[in-house]
């Protein structure tokens, strides 16, 4: 199992991906970031199936930053899949989205999101939001241990 706390960023928009990575770097958050660009790949990665079947299921992200509008499977579908699995249901998931729809907010929390953050349009505000997310989820928050025997 990797001892390094890594972030899983699920984001299909290259501009938002670059902004997020730049904001993390600007905040001096040096944790590795794994970027996945569609919902189906995110589910395979987190559940260790498909193209990620050989991935160590105990090497879990410290936090998942999840966009809602993704190709193949939506962020809602990804969240459902994460919460449906014994070994992933406790993973911290932050919905990081540009959606201002109240029903998206309510649905995200109903499906088990730990946090819902709207992406600010202004880069300085966005960078500050990502910095705060990084500091909380990677430094302050104590994540649950990986589920033992989860895949047995």
Describe the structure.
- The protein contains 5 helices and 5 strands, in the order E-H-E-H-E-H-E-H-E-H.
- Strands 2-1-3-4-5 form a 5-stranded parallel beta sheet, with helices on both faces.
- With 152 residues, it is of the alpha/beta class.
- The protein has helices at residues 14-26, 39-47, 75-84, 102-110, 123-140, and strands at residues 7-10, 33-36, 63-66, 93-97, 115-118.
- Strand 1, helix 1 and strand 2 form a beta-alpha-beta unit.
- It has a single domain, classed as 3-Layer(aba) Sandwich (Rossmann fold).
- The protein starts with 6 loop residues before the first strand and ends in a 12-residue tail after the last helix.
- The protein is globular, with a radius of gyration of 14 Å.
- Helix 1 packs across helix 5 and helix 2 (39-47) packs parallel to helix 3.
- Helix content is 39%, strand content 14%.
């Amino acid at each position: 199992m990797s001892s390094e706390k890594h972030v899983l960023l699920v984001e299909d928009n290259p501009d938002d991906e670059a902004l997020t990575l730049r904001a993390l770097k600007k905040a001096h958050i040096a944790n590795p970031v794994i970027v996945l660009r569609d919902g189906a790949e995110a589910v395979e990665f987190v559940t260790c199936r498909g193209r990620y079947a050989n991935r160590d299921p105990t090497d879990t992200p410290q936090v998942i930053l999840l966009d809602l509008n993704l190709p193949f499977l939506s962020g809602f579908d990804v969240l459902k899949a994460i919460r449906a699995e014994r070994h992933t249901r406790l993973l911290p998931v932050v919905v990081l989205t540009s959606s201002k729809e109240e029903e998206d907010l309510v649905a995200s929390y109903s499906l088990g999101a730990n946090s819902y953050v709207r992406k600010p349009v202004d880069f300085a505000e966005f960078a500050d939001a990502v910095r705060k997310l990084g500091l909380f989820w990677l430094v302050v928050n104590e994540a649950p241990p990986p589920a033992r025997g989860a895949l047995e």
